[in-house]
Write a structure and sequence with these properties.
It is a single chain. The protein has 706 residues and is α+β, with helices and mostly antiparallel strands. Helices cover 40% and strands 16% of the residues. A hairpin with a 2-residue loop joins strand 13 and strand 14. The two termini are 42 Å apart. Interacts with UvrB in an incision complex.
Length: 706
């Protein structure tokens, strides 16, 4: 990896003006493209202490070997140039959206002598009017089948059209009235083009005038006693109304707008777009992307807008269907500053474009629907990737090869530490078997053997406690092979002394046959060992986990670490990490396991914090209502810190006078917390469901919280 200081520009060399910059690697490949209002301020931010940079940014600047820039006159020009360079160089550290499926569109080839209606995929062609995209091709064909009765436009291929012209006989659609048969001269090219124009206008949302005209023709035919013609027009009206029902009105006033929603996690993001034309949803599309750069929701929106409209020009009405740039683009978050992006859109449309976040009414409700679609798309993408048996098998094999394991790790356990500024330190253990989560095997730990923030020491404690329980279960199931542990003493009954259960002197602990509890039929806690332990962290956490296993004499469990948002896998005793390809299914599985452990730890930590916020000691303070009680807890962060505060410090909280402060201090001093109960076999803290800490024996301990 390169040292950023080796290619850092000299002071004063970078201009203080808008521009676009490129980072290149040692092979001169462009790896990142960005824009800035001030090149000097933006580029200087990349060359600070690497420890202060976002992890992905740090990876980018250490991969790069040079940086160059281009000065432009305005931020809008910078936006245009950034889009062009991203499209040209395809940088690996830029967000790149990819369609989660190839969406089909309804196309009318107005660039041909006899325009054709057909389903099209892929890039747009000049002179073709597009409508959609649609989720399914069959939805397009259903709509077209209904409309061909009224607008009998050609739908056949060039070969069929040429063949019919040669033999002088139309195809089947010509015989049944769903094609005007221009191939045999039933209509002139001008008449057929007029039909195609009417078809396009109807699809673009201009249906009201045509329907009223058709209804008047039907009434005139009935009045003239031309009942067959009137019946034909009646059937045409019914067909058009059925076609219109497929796209219900969602916005009033014939609004033209695109709604963009984003669903994201730390690794991936899904974008969904609804195209509303004439107040109706005319198309839908979506993308999924890996978040390979440090980017927030507003940044994802900006990238999506660039990709969506980068090749568009003109307004939506001129382009037809969902093409072009609409009058309104509704998004969940606005990039800062928003003016350059709005001006860029306005230039592409040729008139003013409103780029904003909907705040109320129908548009906000529709945005919520688009957001739900984005969340479902992201969940579906992850489910498909995780549930495929072949993919999971390949992921496990890749992990085994990368970590030099004898067999694929069919059971993986991952551990994460969570705390709030050193308070309420907890840990989580999640289990994945055969690449799928086993939530019934999840466990939670409280770190109580020391105070303060020390993730390495916490990891050592949690791993030690978990595997001491595993050794205890082996002893209980008569599987224990007596061997001295690295820490020394072994109890007479075969278990390490630290794990010995409280039993009358001279009594042996009863051995139960097998890891399945005969009373419940469920696996005993910690009865099964993993083939791989994954810790959330780098070298220090990995070393602590390996040391805990060695102290217990366990040498058949592999250990690795995965630091947050990094693509590096750390193994014990190695100075350099194991590098898995960014597209590796093995890396994806490790990230998924790590993220699940992080989620589980955070949820436990938050639940503990919410319990502590409901501090019973403050409830009894006379004259202290909910507002001032919350103000106290918000100011000090926890009941523990409030208890340690002086009267003068409590008085600094807005709304708290000296008399109230003295009352609070006295109430907290008289309600000191009782010592927690400890499981003597494992050292684990025992906690009731209401947050109390009763005195209990190991046999009283129940549930998943350890």
């Amino acid at each position: 990896m390169a040292d950023p200081s080796t290619y850092r520009p000299k002071p004063g060399q970078i201009p203080d003006s808008p521009g676009v910059y490129k980072f290149r690697d040692e092979h001169r490949r462009v790896i990142y493209v960005g824009k800035a209002k001030s090149l000097r301020a933006r580029l200087s931010s990349y060359f600070q202490d690497i420890a202060n940079l976002h992890q992905r940014t740090a990876t980018m600047v250490t991969t790069a070997a040079s940086v160059e820039w281009t000065v432009v006159s305005t931020e809008v020009e910078a936006l245009q140039l950034e889009y062009s360079w991203i499209k040209e160089f395809d940088p690996r550290f830029n967000v790149k959206y990819r369609d989660d499926k190839s969406y089909p569109s309804l196309a009318v080839t107005m660039n041909e002598e006899f325009p054709r209606v057909q389903v099209m995929r892929g890039p747009k062609r000049k002179g073709v009017r597009y409508f959609g995209p649609y989720a399914h091709a069959w939805a397009i064909r259903e709509t077209v089948d209904l409309l061909l009765r009224v607008f009998p436009v050609r739908t056949c291929s060039a070969g069929v059209f040429k063949r019919s012209a040669q033999i002088g006989r139309p195809c089947l659609l010509g015989y049944i009235g769903k094609c005007s048969a221009p191939c045999v001269g039933r209509v002139s090219p001008e008449e057929h083009r007029e039909l195609a124009e009417e078809f396009s206008d109807f699809m673009a949302g201009h249906a009201g005038t045509y329907l009223r005209r058709l209804e008047q023709r039907m009434k005139d035919a009935a009045a003239a006693m031309e009942y067959e013609q009137a019946a034909r027009l009646r059937d045409d009206l019914e067909a058009l109304r059925r076609a219109m029902e497929k796209n219900a009105v969602v916005l009033a006033d014939a609004t033209d707008a695109d709604l963009i929603a984003v669903a994201e996690d730390e690794l991936e993001a899904a974008v969904q777009i609804f195209h509303v034309r004439g107040g109706r949803v005319r198309g839908q599309r979506g993308w999924v992307t890996d978040k390979v750069e440090a980017v927030d929701t507003a940044g994802l929106v900006e990238h999506a807008v660039q990709q969506l409209y980068g090749d568009e020009s003109g307004d939506a009405e001129q382009s037809g269907g969902s093409g072009g740039v609409p009058r309104e683009v509704l998004v969940p978050a606005l990039p800062e500053p928003v003016e350059p992006l709005a001006q860029w859109l306005s230039e592409r449309r040729g008139s003013q474009v409103s780029l904003r976040v909907p705040q109320r009414g129908d548009k906000k409700d529709l945005m919520a629907t688009v957001q739900r679609n984005a969340q479902q798309a992201l969940a579906l993408h992850k489910t498909k990737r995780a549930s495929d048996l072949t993919t999971r098998s390949r992921a496990l094999e890749e992990i085994a090869a990368a970590l030099d394991l004898d067999t694929a790790p069919l059971r993986i356990e991952c551990y994460d530490i969570s705390h709030l500024q050193g308070d309420d330190v907890v840990a989580s253990m999640v289990v994945f078997e055969d690449g799928l989560s086993r939530k019934s095997e999840y466990r939670r730990f409280q770190i109580k053997s020391f105070a303060g923030q020390d993730d390495v020491r916490s990891m050592h404690e949690v791993i030690s406690r978990r595997f001491r329980r595993y050794l205890q279960e082996k002893q209980r199931t008569s599987e224990w092979e007596q061997q001295p542990a690295a820490t020394g003493e072994v109890a007479a009954n075969g278990a390490p002394a630290a794990d010995r259960e409280a039993a009358p002197s001279g009594e042996a602990v009863e051995a139960v046959g097998g890891p399945i509890d005969p009373d419940t039929g469920r696996p005993r806690k910690f009865a099964y060992p993993p083939q791989l332990v994954v810790v959330d962290g780098g070298q220090p956490q990995v070393a602590a986990a390996r040391r805990a296993l060695e102290e217990l004499g366990i040498d058949d469990v592999a250990v690795c670490g995965l630091a947050k948002r990094l693509e590096e896998v750390w193994v014990p005793g190695e100075d350099d990490p194991v590098i898995l390809p960014r597209t590796s299914e093995g890396l994806y599985l490790l990230q998924r396991v790590r993220d699940e452990a992080h989620r589980f730890a955070i949820s436990y930590q938050r639940s503990k914090r919410s319990k502590s916020m409901k501090a019973g000691a403050l409830d009894a303070v006379p004259g202290l209502g909910d507002t001032r009680r919350q103000a106290l807890l918000k100011h000090f962060g926890s009941l523990k810190r409030l208890r340690a505060a002086t009267v003068e410090e409590i008085c600094q909280v807005p709304g708290i006078g000296r008399h109230t402060a003295e009352t609070v201090a006295a109430a907290l001093a008289s309600a000191a917390p009782a010592a927690p109960a400890v499981n003597t076999a494992t050292g684990e803290i025992i906690e009731d469901s209401d947050g109390a800490t009763p005195t209990a024996t190991p046999s009283d301990h129940r549930g998943n919280s350890t």
